[in-house]
Amino acid sequence: MLTYVGRRLLAAIPTLWGVATAVFIMARLLPGDPARVIAGVTASQDQVDHLRRQLGLDQPLPVQYLDFLGGLVRLDLGTSAHFGDPVLAEIGSRLPYTAELALAALALAVVLGISGGVVAALRRNTVIDVVISTVSMLGISMPTYWLGLMLIVLFAIQFRLLPAAGADSPESVVLPAVTLGLLSVGLIARMTRSSLLEVLGQDYVRTARAKGVSPARVVVAHGLGGAVVTESVFGWPGVGRLLLDSIFSRDYPMVQGLVLLFAVTYIAVNLLVDLLYVVVDPRVRYG
């Protein structure tokens, strides 16, 4: 097991290097001058040039790239050009909000997804099965931003039951959590149904979660991208909204740091899920 974990961690190094290189290049392909965007339209050219030197943007791209990689080796993601704080500190202040949203969405997705999939499997080829399958497909197909806006119109504007945006009260997490969670409910329900049907057709009972992709991995794979849009729609002060704000403000260090955070999170969760397979099913062994 330790050998397997070691191999996975070593394999993650070139993956993270590739992600770091890709985000470095793509960030600099964004149109516009970051120094001008940060300084503002009223800033003089001398002020813009001074800011460009401060940000290191006057250096050749190979020099900027080597400085970036050197910072990664020291676990230093640099200083945010927009906020003026260290990237890690700014991300750390936003992570609790994203964690709160992710846990709420995960609970919703797992409870509704697994229960819906079990009911659909037990009522196979009935009206209930058709309804659950149809709702699952709609959940998979609906764009995040559209669903979020519709929930705001219905529950925040029409009925005034829940806040439309922000994170000022416990109720503020409800609409964004529902929006983000419904992205995975349909996928989990469909996987649970197919896995359970396969299990029920065998002579012995297996755990459905030991088959295919686990709900946790689905939530991470589809939820990271959904969180970016969801937090932006609802004004939720998490890392998803921070990423969009940083892209619009051409904050290279923050964009690079957040994309790397997403990559590390995805790799870590996939490794954790694979290791949990051994706990769920002792017959699974990694060699």
Your description of this structure?
- With 287 residues, the chain is mostly helical.
- It has 2 domains: 2-73, no CATH class; 95-250, no CATH class.
- The protein is built from 11 helices and no strands.
- The protein has helices spanning 2-28, 34-39, 45-55, 61-73, 87-122, 127-141, 144-158, 174-200, 215-233, 239-248, 252-280.
- Helix 5 (87-122) packs across helix 8 and helix 6 (127-141) crosses helix 8 (174-200).
Please indicate the percent range of residues in DSSP E strands (runs of 2 or more): under 5%
Helicity, in percent? over 70%
- What about the largest sheet? none
**Which residues form runs of ≥5 with pLDDT under 50?**
203-213, 215-223
Q: Averaged pLDDT, please?
A: 83
Fold blueprint:
Elements lengths: L1 H27 L5 H6 L5 H11 L5 H13 L13 H36 L4 H15 L2 H15 L15 H27 L14 H19 L5 H10 L3 H29 L7
Helix pairs in contact: 1-11, 5-6, 5-8, 5-9, 6-8, 7-8, 7-9, 8-9, 9-10, 9-11, 10-11
Brief account:
By secondary structure, the protein is mainly alpha-helical. The chain contains 11 helices and no strands.
